[in-house]
């Protein structure tokens, strides 16, 4: 309850901020886009992880104004990078379950795109596999409308949910993100290597863009390249960082 109260104040006190993690094309190492990751700089507790406060935001409906703020902020930043030539592909934003259910997501995305002037094609929404399994007609309509606007939809943490793959046929999606728990084991664990290979090949045959997340080592990158995985992100390239530090990282690459 106390964290909930201070989370309410956090928005108006500008304690929330976004970090961004670059996503790269694995074959050339070219910068493709970014994933926006929320942070809470709490006055007493310091940096609070979204794993801690997003569930609180979901339980209290604060996820609606917070999600709206994330979309507006990420789209505005993407527009700046696009204008500077530092966005070839897309800005990815994580969407939580309740945010999708509360159904004004179409308006919220529309407003964020309008305000920022970011083309819809430059925005990607990441939804979790459990969300994808649990769509009602209403949430499916929301996803279809977002897709019709030109926004890309991606299944995050792919492979960690349930085993039914039928939703891949049903949902208007463009991509999959291989969960980092599999990527972590591709070199040492034959099972993780097999699952990762299977996801890459499944995505390719369904025409979906696949991203490997949590790449930490050159050996993992080599495996993913060998398997033809097109996109990746992870500490090996760059940690999620605030705009100032990411601008330094971008400048150093030029
Ligand atoms: O960046 P980090 O590993 O701390 O993120 C932890 C979790 O919080 C991840 O599951 C990530 O998807 C989620 N997360 C990060 N930013 C956002 C956000 O803006 N909105 C939502 N709904 N989830 C987020
Ligand atoms: O659930 P989602 O995939 O959105 O969460 C992404 C989380 O993974 C973020 O919290 C981000 O900080 C974290 N992350 C990004 N790259 C790496 C990495 O290379 N290793 C690890 N362990 N975590 C990472
Ligand atoms: Mn994600
Ligand atoms: Na993930």
From TrEMBL:
Top-rank taxon: Bacteria
Q: Where is the EAL domain?
A: 1-254
| Protein name in UniProt | Diguanylate cyclase/phosphodiesterase with PAS/PAC sensor(S)
Species, as recorded: Rivihabitans pingtungensis
Taxonomic placement:
Bacteria, Pseudomonadati, Pseudomonadota, Betaproteobacteria, Neisseriales
Please specify the portion of the entire protein covered by the chain, as first and last position out of its full length. Answer: 601 to 854 of 860
